[in-house]
Amino acid sequence: MSAIEDLRGRVRGQVLTVGDDGYDVARHVNNAMHDKRPQVIVRCENAGDVMAGIDYARQHELELAVRGGAHSVPGFGTVDDGLVIDLSGMRFVRVDPATRTARAGGGATWGDFNAATHAFGLATTGGIISTTGVGGLTLGGGIGYLARGLGLSCDNLVSADVVTADGKFVIASEKEHEDLFWALRGGGGNFGVATALEFRLAPVSTVYGGPMFFELSDATAVLTGFRELIKDAPEQLGGFPAFQIAPPLPFIPENRHGEPFAAIVGCWAGDPADGEAQISKFREFAPVVAEMVGPMPYPAINSAFDALVPPGLQHYWKANFVTELTDEAIQAHLRHAPGLPAVNSTVHIYPINGACHRVTADSTAFAYRDANFATVIAGMWPDPADNESAISWVRSYYDDIAPHSEAGGYINFMAGDDQGRIRDNYRQNYDRLAEVKRRYDPDNLFHLNQNIMP
Fold first, then answer.
1. Which residue from 143, 176, 150, 146 is spatially nearest to 161, judged by alpha carbons?
2. How far apart (Å, rounded) are the C-alpha atoms in residues 328 and 333?
3. Second label for 445, Cα 20 to 30 Å away, from 271, 277, 347, 427?
4. How far is CA 369 from the centre of its chain?
């Protein structure tokens, strides 16, 4: 029996190699810049499949990529000539309303998660796009609409089922494998494959919010107004300022479609009766050109921008943490934001104060507990012919705001050429992360990530 047939015998899901039906579909990830051809794709259905795939990669000295939601901008979910652990067949979500917890499979998306928890009027901090993988977002920290009130996704993690580099299954929590549990909360995919994650939930059902568009000429007023308001706003007030080309949506005047705007996407997760008063505070910054604001189910706002981020775009992103959004930083934003390369591209400035600040910097691997914002310059565009100019725009933008930002950034927003920033991203936590890495992955099998060297 060949080695690959032996692997197929161990795996409940599919094992695909070049030429197999479904291989070409299975090898694709969201960022079309990464058009790679793995030697083997293991489409896992359970933790045992993950164990088998890891064993095979280790025994045959293959590079190993791990894919959950396939959103990794640097393309870490695929690899040429190596093995891909594809978790997309593990999308279960089980909610326990009595304990207000939910358990999600390693391939679940936030759309899967929100659909399950919303039925019980519950939620936890997720991302901004519902097709994002629960696992990848959480392991990197987890910034989203509910972060000011509930903390990061990783702050709500109760436990994780993990297959480590030696192919063994462990459960990491505050009570067992505590060092691994600490590292998973912000340390990314460096330590193993999370096959299931358990979260605390909070009562969140109907939220009040949506996008507001402002003239670019009012962007200074919008950003300074948001900066001052969010310092001590009620923690149920989430959302973020942004720069965005107006998509062709009916609430935006047709003659303004395709123009760049400043924007605020608001999300009030407190009493819906207070929503209009809370969101109206944003209207005081400057005249609103267009808006689509009102009450909606939480899953609706978490999926509102999915159409702008379909699979197959070209992606190149840069990111920084920001302690203070200074006047100089705002002017740097205004020098570059009008040049957004496509309607898919955007710049978001996420507030991460409130509950995020109540976790100490060494309680989890996520080190920037004093940062007030996480900025992402998300370059996304459809045509590969635009790669050079669009990447140049992202890099120039980043270079201009970097002197007004912290040295490190949120690893979920990092590009593939940001490996030199790893120590800055983890600050004082880096050495401890390296120790955990040496314990659970001494040979650096899991290195296709923002890599922490053992």
1. 176
2. 9
3. 427
4. 17
